Task: structure prediction
Amino acid sequence: MKRLILVAMWVWAWAVADGQTDEFRKSYDEFRRQARAEYEDFRQKANREYAEWMRQAWEWHQRIEPVERPKDEMLPPVIYDREQRNEPKPIDYDEVVPTPAPQPQPKPVAPIRENDGEWQTATFQFFGTAGRVRLPKGFAFRLGGMDEKAFAAGWEELSAAQYDNLIRDCLALRMEHQLCDWAYLMMLGAMSEAVCGKGSNEARMMQGYALCQSGYKVRFGLAEDRRLRLLFKSEHQIFGMAAYKLQDGLFYLTEPADDRGMRICDIAYPEERPLSLWITQEQRLAERNSAERLLAPADSLTSIKVQVNENLLEFYDSYPTSMVGDDVLSRWAMYATTPLAGKVREQLYPQLRAAMGREASAEAAAGWLLNWVQTAFVYEYDDKVWGHDRAFFAEETLRYPYCDCEDRAILYSRLVRDLLGLDVLLVFYPGHLAAAVEFKTAVEGDYIVLGGRRFTVCDPTYIGAPIGATMPGMDNKTAKVTLLMAAKKQ
Result:
């Protein structure tokens, strides 16, 4: 189809050059009309065929138990002893675990056009943020039962043109609020329950339909308790979430359930794509400021004031721990690559620049930031605070009273990339996470050589340690590293 459109555009340009515009204008307009009709017919045909399969293609599948979050025996912080500084220990790495580049979000299999029919408005809330969608006038979506025929009939009803504005509005909200795939999944769940009833089978059907029409891989299951379940395919391995192994790999349940297994309609929709857990843009949720927090480094009168968006923290609390393939470092790269919220940057970064000194060298500024993260935050184990291992997004470390080594490394790497424009490595030792910074000039201390590039060790949990000091007991030869690219200077 795209090739035909390009050919038509070339013919149009040639006709204009040749002066035959009237005749070719009519031909081109007719071509566009036919192309649009073919797109719309393709989506309608896909939905008809999907509904037909729903009448018959249900098979029993056994549940796969959730994979538990990896439990790392995190080591306690160590206080730096200036009298025991050793000679620098450079380590040369031939390979690095790459951070995969996130892909563009899924999109509908064909353009979804505005529908001119009569409609009514429904409002809902997701993470403290208002949403609004249009529904057909007199909306009353109900499943006529809990069997294959009822599900197929429900799909056919939702795929009628009168629901196109609903899908358009959902996609517009995804764009307006810059929602990542996980936030979009949560938003569709809130919308569906608001219009169909909390926990209802109709809500799960509507959520799954909207997710499918938006381009994502979804499947439906019928549990023994006669409840409809919704499953989604993820690009990543998700911990702590029950899954089912289907033809296209693992599909995860959107909500907890104790089913030992269930009948699932394992039918693919054209051009569907898995959900991603990367967060590449700030999530634009309604503002609800936390209490102001003062964070002062040791031996300093400088207190940094910060507030964060409680609605964003609520979203982060819903975010599942995951991993790309077998790459253990990707667990933390997910958090470290997530941008800090604009309002937090506007409040926090001018204070940090002033405290570092605007004329300070990159080494001096990175050293001040390192000391701030080392001493302004209170260390505590995740198991004691949360009952399980939990990495923090940068805003969470700024908000919550306790953090551990991985949270400090994530925050420090974010600050260095944003404020100093320097690339950073996350450095994982068994039981510990630190960072290493690529300075423009040689800096004294331990460093890692990666592809000819020199990254100086910076450990936010080695209390009082300067740049270039590796925490005792950490062996850089056995460490794993992943590269985090600098942001443009804020």
Notes: The CA atoms of residues 356 and 365 lie 5 Å apart.
